[in-house]
Design a protein that fits this description.
The protein has 11 helices and 8 strands. The chain is globular, with a radius of gyration of 20 Å. The longest helix has 17 residues. An 8-stranded parallel barrel has the order 1-2-3-4-5-6-7-8, surrounded by 7 helices. It has about 270 residues and is an alpha/beta fold. The chain has 2 domains: about 230 residues, Phosphoenolpyruvate-binding domains (TIM Barrel), CATH 3.20.20; about 30 residues, no CATH class. It binds 3-methyl-2-oxobutanoic acid. The site of 3-methyl-2-oxobutanoic acid (KIV) has 11 residues, from strand 6.
Length: about 270
């Protein structure tokens, strides 16, 4: 009999990840933005799929996540939910869709959940978005919080460097993490913060803390799919482990295809009608 909390056949929910935290079982999350990749990710046994607004970079080629829109996030999330049968799908609320008044944030969250089929939303920030988080949670929509490096604030931070290295920012992050837990967020993402700080937050919170560039002593990890598959040539931050070199595989395949077409080596009789 399996000792895992996660039943390989059962849909992953907020209750599943809460049990995983209680049982000390690590949570694996990865991003996806389309049906084909989501189907492959789901079949792998992944716990959570994040339809990140990193789609702005990965899918649309923007330099930041700031131009991402609600309609585009809904489109990507629809594609992912079509492919994800077991993993829980969480969709990022894009920049500008929740930082203003809380009623608009609720309206946007309801639209995103209704039209995409995702099970939860993720929002970047702490006390400054408190009212939006409260209203969305009150409507019964699960919220994943996100602190540390919050890429939608890149212009405020002046880059993508490590956050909360100084004591005052670390204290603020810890206080925000507790506040978000008390409000009812079901999980927290910590991005690019010192490992010791992340470990402290994970030990103090009863909700799962999932990290990217936040060290090993937390409840789970998340990476951007195309980054860990080696498709984002030249992107090699310290926190990223390459699990494949698909850029090389794809390049070699395409070059071979071109050569075969030019040499009339493709298609053969067996590949023709
Ligand atoms: O948009 C995204 O992909 C994210 C993860 C990096 C956590 O927010």
């Amino acid at each position: 009999m399996s000792t895992n909390t996660v039943d390989i056949l059962k849909k992953v929910t907020t209750a599943t990840v809460a049990r995983m935290k209680q049982n000390g079982e690590k949570i694996a999350m990865i991003t996806a933005y389309d049906y084909t990749m989501a189907s492959l990710v789901d079949a792998s046994g992944m716990d959570l799929i994040l339809v990140g607004d990193s789609a702005a970079n990965v899918m649309a080629g923007y330099e930041t996540t700031i131009p991402m829109t609600i309609d585009k996030m809904i489109y990507h999330a629809q594609c992912v939910t079509a492919g994800a049968k077991r993993a829980m799908v969480i969709v990022d609320m894009p920049f500008g869709s929740y930082q203003g008044d809380a009623t608009s944030a609720l309206h946007n969250a309801v639209r995103m959940i209704k039209e995409s089929g995702a099970a939860a939303v993720k929002l970047e920030g702490g006390r400054e978005i408190r009212e939006s988080v409260e209203k969305i949670l009150a409507a019964g929509i699960p919220v994943m919080a996100h602190l540390g490096l919050t890429p939608q604030s890149v212009n405020k931070f002046g880059g993508y460097g490590i956050r909360a290295k100084e004591a005052d920012e670390a204290e603020r992050l810890i206080a925000d993490a507790h506040m978000l837990e008390q409000l009812g967020c079901f999980a927290l993402v910590l991005e690019k913060v010192p490992s010791a700080l992340a470990a402290r937050v994970a030990s103090e919170l009863s909700i799962p803390v999932i990290g990217i560039g936040a060290g090993p002593d937390i409840d789970g990890q998340v990476l951007v799919l195309q980054d860990m598959l080696g498709m984002n040539v030249g992107f090699k931050p310290k926190f990223l482990r390459l699990y494949a070199n698909l850029a090389e595989t794809i390049d070699a395949s395409l070059r071979q295809y071109i050569a075969d077409v030019k040499a009339v080596d493709f298609p053969t009789q067996a590949e023709s009608y």
